[in-house]
């Protein structure tokens, strides 16, 4: 299990870098690359953590489908427009930061807006 998690961590870093680099090259923003890479990396690790948690609870053959449904539901309940009202500090912000993958994408929206 630990070997699979370690290799998956390297996989997530490579996929996140590839996606962020391709998006950065296509859009050519006027901000540094790390402003795109770090939020995407945090979002990826949050989603991977959810996947591991769900795969431990449900049978292995259903884990991928249930994880996809759970991510659609969680990200649908907290879209980036709704997160602006929730991220005011305190326990609710801590809870949302730990549970919702969209929260880490908010940094990218704020940084590119200014």
General description of the model:
The protein is mainly alpha-helical and 114 residues long. The chain contains six helices and no strands. Helix 1 (2-27) packs antiparallel against helix 2, helix 2 (34-57) packs across helix 3 (60-77) and helix 2 packs antiparallel against helix 6 (102-113). It is globular and about 45 Å long.
Q: What structural class should be given to the helix and strand makeup? A: mainly alpha
Helix content: over 70%
SSE succession: HHHHHH
Main sheet specs:
none
As a percent range, the share of strand residues is under 5%
Shape: globular
Summarize the structure.
By secondary structure, this protein is an all-alpha fold. It has helices at 2-27, 34-57, 60-77, 80-86, 91-99, 102-113.
Present the secondary structure layout.
Layout: H1 2-27, H2 34-57, H3 60-77, H4 80-86, H5 91-99, H6 102-113
Helix pairs in contact: 1-2, 2-3, 2-6
């Amino acid at each position: 299990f630990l070997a699979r998690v370690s290799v998956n961590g390297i996989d997530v870093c490579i996929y996140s870098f590839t996606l962020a680099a391709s998006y950065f090259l296509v859009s050519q923003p006027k901000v540094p690359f790390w402003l795109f890479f770090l939020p995407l990396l945090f979002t990826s690790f949050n989603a991977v953590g959810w996947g591991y948690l769900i795969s431990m609870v449900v049978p292995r053959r259903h884990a991928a489908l249930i994880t996809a449904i759970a991510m659609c539901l969680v990200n649908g309940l907290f879209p980036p427009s709704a997160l602006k009202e929730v991220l005011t500090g305190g326990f609710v912000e801590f809870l949302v930061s730990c549970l919702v993958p969209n929260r880490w994408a908010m940094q990218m929206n704020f940084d590119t807006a200014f």
